[in-house]
Amino acid sequence: MSAEEVLAALPDRAVLVLYDGVCAMCNGIVRFLLARDPDDRFRFLALQSELGRAVVRARGGDPDEVSTLYVITSPGRAGEKVLVRGRAGIRAMTSAGGAWRLLDALRVLPTFLLDAGYRLIARHRYRIAGRLDACPVPPTEHRHKFL
User: Fold this and answer.
1) Tens-place pLDDT, residues 20-52
2) Distances (CA, A) of 117 to 66, 72, 82, 88, 122
3) How far is CA 111 from CA 26, 49, 87, in A?
4) Is 11 helix (H, G, I), strand (E, B) or coil?
């Protein structure tokens, strides 16, 4: 099955998060989002995976750049929207709902400023939170959310 066929099979309202699978900070964000997903919208894909690389490549990204967070809304559909770095982070957090929606106010900031902040954190993420030896295996109840 091709990457596009996999994406087209996702639920209509899916929000796909592509993340660095060996970054402890990124995996913490994934766990945070899993805990705030009562509508089963989030799907996750490690950038290091073959499928992750194919999805990034098909959207004009560099599959070797694992420090970039991607959020894709309506993946594989006509209304697909790809967000990267700072904008992706804002979208992921606001999609968690609740008080996290207040972060939507950051959308007024210019992309270059959001991305500068994102790059600063991304550059030091392993030093801040650590690096894992491998992508963790998700808990059984959440495995359907990981591609």
Assistant:
1) 888 888 888 899 999 999 889 999 999 999 999
2) 17, 20, 19, 13, 9
3) 21, 27, 7
4) coil
CB-side neighbour CA atoms (13 Å) of 131: 10
- Which residue ranges form the domains of the chain, and what is each CATH number? 3-134 (3.40.30)
Tens digit of each residue's pLDDT (9 = 90 or more) over 102-139: 888 988 999 999 899 888 888 888 887 887 777 777 78
Long-range contacts, stretch 126-132, CB < 8 angstroms, 24+ apart: 126/23, 126/24, 128/25, 129/23, 129/24, 129/25, 129/28, 130/24, 130/25, 131/22, 131/23, 131/24, 132/21, 132/22, 132/23, 132/24, 132/27
Residue type, 87: R
Measured between alpha carbons, how far is 124 from 109 in angstroms, rounded to an integer?
Answer: 22
Q: Which residues contact 31 (CB under 8 A, 6 or more apart)?
A: none
Give the tens place of pLDDT for each residue, 46-95.
Answer: 999 999 999 999 999 998 888 889 999 999 888 899 999 999 999 998 88
- In one-letter notation, the amino acid at residue 39 is D
With H, G, I as helix, E, B as strand and everything else as coil, classify residue 29. Answer: helix
